[in-house]
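Note to self: keep these together.
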Amino acid sequence: MSLGATAALALALAACQQPALAEQPAPRVPEAVIRANEASGLKTAVFAGGCYWGMEAVFSHLKGVTSVVSGFEGGLRADADYETVSTGTTGHAEAIRVTYDPARIRYDQLLQVFFGVASDPTQLNRQEPDVGPQYRNALVPIGPEQKRVAAAYIAQLKALKLWKRPIVTRIEPWHGFYPGPAEHQDFALRNPRHPYILRWDVARVDALKRTFPQWYKPDFTPN
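Structure:
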């Protein structure tokens, strides 16, 4: 590994070492009243919910998911590198691109997982220990059907007032997705004893298994 690559990895590993925000128990989220009406064939969804290691770990354990890529959404391609995004000035968010089979798991069911175990939708421009607009909570619908379902589900959850704090999840326009560095892909699979994974992301996967056993699979789907 070159000196530049080593420095980049060191910065990446340090980025998830900020003071932690006090956690609140995740409520059990309901099924969506408005279900996704999706044509057959593989589909793509993009979610931003904090450090993409944990988001990737959760969605990679879902039945019907064939690929999860860690990367960036919301900014320009020219700025979509980890060091620049980590400044919080580019408009990007750390995000994942999920490829899934709607015959096995629909978009609205992915939303249940997102709100139920993958992220805390009440944290503004941060997620657990990670602080900055690049860690914001956002849905990035691809196409009008995903946008319709996402807006309806957020409205449904807001009306229920399941959390003590208000939901701040944004619906952002689709401007493209840019994969992150190779060393960040399948991070939890390749680094199961990393302190950040043990502290934050193992619990998320355990919560997925407990909360959504109908969709959980023990194997991690590699990128």
